[in-house]
Specification:
Helices cover 21% and strands 0% of the residues. The chain has 53 residues and is an all-alpha fold. It is elongated. The mean pLDDT is 83.
Length: 53
């Protein structure tokens, strides 16, 4: 049986006081790479694609 609800999140916003430091911390936590020169206020977006639905 097909289910109309998927177990996924599309977007999460986390307000932080130091964006560069936070991107560094979350990138380690989520095992994502980033370039510090790509971090600019007010928002940084991690590319995180999961092909499993």
């Amino acid at each position: 049986m097909s289910h109309p609800i998927y177990l996924k999140m599309n977007t999460v916003f986390v307000h932080v006081s130091d964006l560069t430091r936070s991107v560094r911390w979350y990138s380690q936590l989520l095992d994502r790479s980033f370039k510090e020169e790509d971090v600019s206020d007010p928002v940084y977006t991690f590319s995180y694609h999961n092909t499993q639905a």
